Every structure is written in C-alpha cells, then in structure tokens.
Inverse folding.
C-alpha cells in the first residue's frame, strides 16, 4: 500500500490520479493504481505538492530557476532507486535526480516530472587504512569533509560546503586540492549506479569500464549513482588559509602579482582571485564595506612551517584592507564562504577555462569590474594547474587536461530586481570580452540553462563522440535527459 504523508487525509484515504510530464513533453496520466504499484515497491512516502517536506525536497539553490516536479521520491536504497527508474522507463516519464540542488541550471528538477531527491542517502563511511570513503549520493560537501577530516584525510571537493557531492563529482569536480590531486573524478575509484534498464551496476576502471569512463564527467547522463567510492589523501586537519584583500584601486598591481604567485606556487598552495564588493560583515573593516576590493581566497595544505617561504610573494604585497589569513581547520577553509552565495537569490554565471593569464585578459578583467553595474557581481580566477594536467585527455570523459585557470563572471541579485535583464546582458557581454583570451571551453558544472548543445559538446571536446557511444549503450532512450544533455545516437532527444 502506498504511504503518503498528506494525501491519505486529503483524498479521504484514496490516492488521487496525477499527470506527470512524459519523455515526449506531453502529460502522462498515472492512475491511483499506477501509483499504488510504485508505492508498493517503496518503503518511503511518495511526495506530492503541499506534502510535508515538499518545499525542501524541491528547493533549488538558484532562485532564478522556476521548476517544480509533479512527484518526488526520497529513496533510501539502490533497490528503491531501481524501482523508480523502472517505473519511469515503463511509463516514459521525465525523471530527474537531485543531489544538493546547487546546479546553476537547476537540472536537479524535471519540471512536471518525477524527481528522485537523494537527501536521505547521506552516510559517509571512512576506511582510514585503505584511505577510501564510501559516500552516499545525498551527501553535501560538508558531510564528507567533516567525516574524512576526523582522520586527517580529504578528497578533492569544492569550497562552498552546501554543494552536493553527487553533482559536483559527476561533472568532474574541482577545489583547492585539485592542484595536488586533480579532478574529483581522478580520485573516484568506483560507483554503484542504477542505469536506465533499472539494473544496479558497479562501475570502476575494471568493471563496466566504459560506463565508469563516462561517469567521470558526464555521470548525470548515464544513470543514478547510489554510492561513490572516493580516494582520500592526508590533508590538514590544520591548513593555512582564509581571505586577504586589497582596495580595487590597486587591481593592476594585484592582478600581475597574482599571475606571478600562481606561476611559482607549489601544488599545496591554491589561491583563487575574486574581484568583488566587500560585504557588510563584521570581519570586514567598516571603511571597506560596500567598496570594490581584490580578494584572494587562499588554501595552503603543505607543511605549516613553510608558510612564510611559500606565501612570501603574497605577504609582501603589503597594506591589505582585509587580512584573515591564519592557520585554521581545513573544514573552516572549506566553508567560510558559505554565506556569500545564499540559497534563493538569483544567479547567472559565465565561465571558461584559460591556459594562461595574458596581459590582455588581466586588463580586460580589471576594466570590466571597474564598470560592472551589479553590486553582487564577482569576477573570479580559479587556479587549477597541476595534477589534472598530467593525465591523458581521454582519462575519463572530463578532459580539459590543459586547463590551468577558470575565469568567471558571476552575477547575484535579489528576486524581483527590475534591472535583472540588464544584469544578465552585462554578464554575457563581460564573457564575450574575455573570450578572446580564454580557451573556448567551459566546465560542464558551471554552465547555465541558456548554454546550448554547442557548449555541452565543447565541454567534452575530443571525448564527445565516445561519450555518445557510451550514452547510446546505457541509455538509448535518453531517459536521463534532465541535465547538460548528451543525446544518444538515433534519438531526437525530444
Ligand atoms: C555556490 C556554488 C559553489 C560551487 N563551487 C564549486 C566548486 O568549488 N567546485 C566545483 O567543482 N563545482 C562547484 N560548483 C558547481 C557544482 O559542482 C554544480 O553546481 C553541481 O551540479 C552541484 O551538485 P549538486 O548535487 O548540488 O547539484 P544538483 O542540482 O542536485 O544536481 C546537479 C546534476 O547532477 C545530477 N545528479 C545529482 N545527483 C545525482 C546522482 N546521484 N546520480 C546521477 N545524477 C545526479 C542532477 O540530475 C543534475 O543534472 C558550485 C556551485 C555553487 C552553486
């Protein structure tokens, strides 16, 4: 018998029919008996709009995206995921998978479809001897960092701790540790994944190797991952890091010094540059609040007694407006920027990889930020060069093995801001002005909803054709299409 938290009372004990968007875009009418069949295979309630828990189950980080599913299942096991996938395939329903809900394009939700919210599958098990973590697909980055740091271990994860491990990993994954250990997927040893046929498979370099190759950068296209096995490394638990910033008036000097710093930095040092407006936060001296600044977010995970030597060229810049650099827990460095991008505001980004920081690029970035009309904008440079450059281009579909930096223009504003259209136009223009100096390819996890197939294709570069073959083998009907979609062969993808 299907269990529902609200529907039983509302419908006088009967489960009402529901229309769910089908793969062809048209509504599929599911009767109460259809839903009972699905419910009988689940040990969890089937959620519908208005049910207790609905709002958080469908919440997306980017308030700009307005999508809502018709049904949500919050599975607790691979078996339940398999039941839902089989049901969706049999009824040709649009299905989506939600990890942390942080994708900027809102790809966790199939509008009018059936969403698997994985938040209940959120356990982390660390084996400190094997240096591996078994990670549930509902985990946020903070869950993994906290659990692994208890053993002085970490894997490559991003720097905002509320992002989902699943989406980040399945698109590649980058963070302060990328310079040492590559993409997150370079540290992925194995996944358990439910494919479009409903089978629960294990994929690794030795088992279903073609599937594993595709999962390492395009996983959302190939199934629903129900467990990740990630390799861990000795990191922290104390590292040196935090935020340091100078007035924007010194941008020319700071950008050039940043280039020198990153060209010489050891791999244990990751410094990300952010041109931003200083927030009105207690840790920012009052005179700088609301002023444009050049900030650097720093994480040095090497030996602490080497800090003065390693950070020499940064510390000698002098007269910072803000200096919050200190020896501190790695988990703190991985989360202190959490409040800077709260859920529900409207976000719009454009990013691209760069191989070098040319004079033209640096002066363009400085000019752009000087004229930027968006108070909540950030122009950033993420330094990636290191371990990820040392793998062959086809080691996982993630590719982009020549990327040394990510350049980004990020806009953030309140819902209902009347200037929103002009902000989006400015972000696009800023991207166009930087493109002559960048590589023409972008990180799939940073692509917005309006970036088309050309950008998806470009993101995978020479690995794209092989990815289409893997997609065709494991998902010939393109069941998993609520993502940066790669259509299988002989499919219209409609
Ligand atoms: C504030 C912020 C900071 C960020 N910082 C970083 C960073 O430092 N490094 C970095 O690499 N990226 C970063 N990102 C980008 C991030 O990697 C992507 O937004 C990613 O998609 C988020 O994953 P999620 O699970 O939260 O997303 P969701 O929106 O839940 O999912 C994203 C995609 O993955 C699919 N998916 C989710 N779970 C599964 C599963 N179990 N099986 C199959 N498919 C699944 C979804 O269907 C969807 O297509 C950041 C994003 C934000 C918003």
């Amino acid at each position: 018998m299907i269990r529902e938290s609200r529907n039983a009372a509302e419908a006088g004990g009967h489960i009402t029919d529901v229309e769910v968007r089908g793969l062809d875009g048209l509504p599929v009418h599911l009767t109460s008996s259809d839903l009972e069949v699905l419910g009988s295979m689940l040990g969890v309630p089937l959620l519908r709009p208005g049910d207790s828990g609905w709002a958080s189950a469908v919440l997306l980080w980017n308030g700009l995206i307005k999508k809502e599913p018709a049904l949500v299942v919050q599975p607790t096991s691979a078996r339940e995921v398999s039941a839902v996938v089989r049901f969706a395939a049999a009824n040709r329903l649009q299905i989506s998978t939600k990890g942390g809900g942080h994708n900027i394009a809102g790809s966790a939700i199939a509008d009018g479809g059936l969403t698997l919210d994985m938040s209940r599958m959120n356990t982390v098990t660390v084996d400190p001897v094997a240096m591996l973590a078994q990670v549930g697909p509902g985990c946020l980055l903070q869950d993994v960092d906290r659990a692994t740091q208890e053993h002085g271990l970490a894997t490559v994860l991003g720097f905002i701790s509320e992002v989902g491990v699943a989406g980040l990993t399945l698109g590649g994954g980058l963070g302060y540790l990328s310079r040492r250990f590559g993409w997150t997927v370079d540290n992925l040893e194995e996944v358990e994944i439910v494919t479009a046929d409903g089978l629960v498979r294990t994929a690794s370099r030795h088992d279903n190797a073609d599937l594993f190759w595709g999962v390492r950068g395009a996983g959302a296209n190939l199934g629903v991952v129900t467990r990740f096995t990630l390799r861990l490394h000795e990191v922290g638990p104390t590292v040196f890091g935090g935020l340091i910033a100078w007035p924007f008036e010194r941008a020319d000097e700071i950008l050039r010094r940043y280039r020198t710093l990153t060209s010489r930095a050891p791999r244990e040092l990751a410094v990300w540059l952010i041109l931003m407006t200083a927030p009105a936060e207690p840790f920012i001296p009052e005179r700088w609040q609301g002023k444009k600044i050049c900030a650097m977010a720093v994480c040095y995970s090497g030996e602490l007694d080497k800090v003065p030597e390693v950070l020499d060229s940064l510390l000698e810049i002098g007269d910072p407006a803000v200096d919050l650099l200190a020896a501190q827990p790695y988990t703190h460095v991985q989360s202190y920027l959490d409040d800077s991008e709260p859920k529900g505001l409207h976000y719009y980004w454009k990013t691209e990889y760069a191989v070098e920081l040319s004079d033209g690029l640096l002066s363009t970035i400085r000019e752009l930020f000087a004229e930027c009309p968006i108070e909540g904008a950030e122009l950033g440079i993420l330094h990636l060069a290191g371990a990820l450059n040392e793998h062959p281009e086809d080691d996982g579909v993630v590719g982009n093995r020549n990327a040394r930096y990510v350049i980004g223009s990020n806009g953030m504003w309140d819902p209902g801001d009347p200037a929103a259209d002009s902000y989006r136009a400015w972000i696009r223009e800023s991207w166009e002005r930087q493109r002559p100096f960048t590589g023409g390819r972008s990180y799939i996890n940073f692509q917005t909803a309006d970036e088309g197939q050309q950008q998806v294709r470009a993101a995978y570069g020479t690995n794209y054709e092989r990815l289409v073959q893997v997609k065709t083998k494991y998902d010939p009907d393109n069941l998993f299409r609520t993502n940066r979609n790669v259509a299988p062969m002989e499919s219209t993808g409609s």
Observations:
- The longest strand covers residues 238-247.
- Residues 61, 96-104, 107-108, 118, 137, 158-160, 163-164, 166-168, 170-171, 173-175, 219-220, 224-225, 341, 445, 482-483 surround flavin-adenine dinucleotide (CB under 6 Å).
- The chain has three domains: 7-120, 124-234, 238-446.
